[in-house]
Amino acid sequence: MIPAIPPIPPVGAALAPAAAPVDAAGAAGAGASSFSDVLGNALSSLDATQQTASNLSVQAATGNASIADVTIASTQADLETQLVTAVRDKAVTAFNSIMGMQA
Predict the structure, then answer these.
(1) How far apart are the first and last CA of the chain?
(2) Residue 86: what pLDDT?
(3) What is the rounded distance in angstroms from the CA atom of residue 41 to the CA atom of residue 13?
(4) Per-residue confidence band for 78, with pLDDT thresholds at 50, 70 and 90
(5) The pLDDT of residue 11
(6) Whole-angstrom Cα distance, residue 87 to residue 95?
(7) What phi-psi label fits residue 63: left (phi over 0), alpha (psi between -120 and 50 degrees) or beta?
(8) Contacts of 42 (CB under 8 A, 6+ apart)
(9) 46, 84 in Cβ contact below 8 A?
(10) What is the distance between the alpha carbons of residues 21 and 35, in angstroms, rounded to a whole number?
(11) What is the pLDDT of residues 7-56, one digit of tens each?
């Protein structure tokens, strides 16, 4: 019997920084995650997902993993890569837009 597919956590929960009050100087509180922390965590998660898919592919080639598990892992890695690429493209577009503004 094929095991049930676990639910996928919402994207916003993984990428949204923690809400923190902003003081008068404009700095976030001590508990806030910076954008670079969130981005670093997303890239670490992407690397781990891709490593898992790669390891399962090798195990399937040697007969130690099911093809269904390999397919699920590779699809998860593909979707996460697409998400990271889309976020990168939006960030580059925003940067270029800001750099094109007149002061």
Answers:
(1) 64
(2) 93
(3) 12
(4) very high
(5) 62
(6) 12
(7) left
(8) 14, 15, 84, 87
(9) yes
(10) 15
(11) 777 665 555 544 444 444 444 444 568 878 888 888 899 999 999 999 99
What distance in Å separates the CA atoms of residue 65 and residue 38, rounded to the nearest whole number?
32
pLDDT of residue 23: 46
Distance (Å, whole) CA 88 – CA 82: 10
Nearest-angstrom CA–CA distance, 4 and 7: 9
Between CA 37 and CA 20 the distance in angstroms is 15
Is the confidence at residue 89, as pLDDT, over 60? yes
C-beta neighbour count of 70 within 10 angstroms: 19
Handedness of CA 16, 18, 20, 22 (dihedral sign): negative
82: nearest Cα among 70, 90, 93: 90
Percent of the chain with pLDDT over 70: 77
The CA distances from residue 60 to 50, 70, 86, in Å, are 15, 7, 30
**Per-state percent for the chain, helix, strand, coil, to nearest 5:** 65, 0, 35
